[in-house]
Design a protein that fits this description.
Number of domains: 1
Structural class: mainly alpha
Shape: globular
Order of helices and strands: HHHHH
Strand content: under 5%
Radius of gyration: 16 Å
Number of helices: 5
Length: about 120
Amino acid sequence: MVLSFLLGYSSWGLLILRLTIGAVFLYHCQPKLKGAMGGGFMMFIGWAELLGGLAMVLGFLTQLAAVGLGIIMVGALYKKTQEWHIPFAAQDKTGWEFDLVLFGGCAALLLLGGGSISLEGMFGF
């Protein structure tokens, strides 16, 4: 492997992935929590994104947060592809490529966990 020396930094990679995904969900939960995107169900999604995003950032129950946020992304992918018929990518609107990347990140964190640079890693749970 050409860059095998970087494998020793895998916990840093997981930290970067967790912080990035957490930041995206923390940003995108705000309009849902303010009621700008509809009623009760979207408020529930907003709270799930807030709590899941915080868990990702802190590395606390990372795999459970990844499951919850991954399920939200499956729902978003379904809505965009099956109900709204949005293309994968488009110049004039957000396609579903962004949702797919978030789902992939959640799937990776589900399988890999939060890494040693996390609350889980520091406290051994």
